[in-house]
Design brief:
Belongs to the short-chain dehydrogenases/reductases (SDR) family. Helices cover 46% and strands 15% of the residues. The chain is an alpha/beta fold.
Length: 279
């Protein structure tokens, strides 16, 4: 088994978008990188002295085991896991087939859990590590037409926050990244719409058009985002959450303020539900 004196980053979904940008930024910052994708040819151009490319399908348990084993065989350790693989399912709840909803959960939630479960034992043994969870502004607030995707990211936020409490004692940190819109394939190739239900045309038609129109027009620079992620995850004081981009900061702040207002509004009726003392 080979080793390296460089920190080792293991990245899922590294073929395009933020995953690829993180792989490039991590190597540029002096790290070793394991860049994975469902189709190895999509990351083959990244291979080099300090970059291992390999197949990983987050829905395939054997491919997860093989990819993690390959990382340890090449570099001897994994210091940073970036759970980036995922996609978007849009539309209304009535429009999704059961299989469509289960498929997006398999990738965006269960796939993340399975990869993390495979990497954690070695991190625990070495007494250090960082798990980067690629969530979204959509993990904090919902958008019209985005319910399925939002649901997976809400689940990922809960999984990540709970995990952070479980692994802190072992020196393992969790960083939840919450990007706003960045110029990736998210609104294009990485997005799926179910068969439309005519009853929802009046509700969703404008949302469909807006979502499609942003493809390739997003103001967020994925390379800039990747550099921030690498800097923060490599630091000594890693926050639990890292929003990225002005839309994310503004949107999350507005949602949290709205929730506090809702909490204040219902407190008079919802707070007093305890057993009353017996006199």
């Amino acid at each position: 088994m080979a080793t390296t004196d460089r920190p080792v980053w293991f990245i899922t979904g590294a073929s395009t978008g933020l995953g690829r940008a993180i792989a490039l930024a991590a190597e540029a910052a002096g790290n070793a990188v394991v860049a994975t994708a469902r189709r190895p040819d999509d990351v083959a151009d990244l291979a080099g002295e300090h970059v291992l490319t390999t197949r990983l399908d987050v829905t395939d348990a054997q491919s997860i085991t093989d990819a993690v084993a390959a990382a340890h065989e090449r570099f001897g350790r994994i210091d940073v896991l970036v759970n980036n693989a995922g996609y978007s399912l849009r539309g209304a709840l009535e429009e999704w087939a059961d299989t469509e909803l289960r498929d997006v959960f398999d990738v965006n939630v269960f796939g993340v859990a399975n990869v993390t479960r495979e990497v954690l034992p070695a991190m625990r043994e070495q007494g250090s590590g960082t798990v980067v969870m690629m969530s979204s502004i959509g993990g904090v607030r919902t958008t019209l037409g985005g319910t399925a995707y939002n649901t997976t990211k809400f689940a990922l936020e809960g999984l990540s926050e709970g995990l952070s409490n479980e692994v802190a004692a072992f020196g393992v940190r969790v960083l939840i990244v919450e990007p706003g819109p960045f110029r990736t394939d998210f609104a294009g190739r990485s997005n799926r719409w179910p068969t439309p239900l005519p009853a929802y045309d009046a509700v969703l038609s404008a949302a469909r058009e807006r979502f499609a129109a942003q493809d390739g027009q997003q103001t967020g620079d994925p390379d800039a985002a990747a550099r921030v992620i690498v800097e923060v995850a490599s630091g000594t004081d890693v926050p639990l959450r890292l929003p990225l981009g002005p839309e994310s900061f503004d949107g999350i702040r507005a949602r949290l303020q709205s929730r506090l207002s809702e909490l204040d509004a219902v407190e008079p009726i919802g707070r007093d539900t305890s057993y009353q003392p017996v006199e």
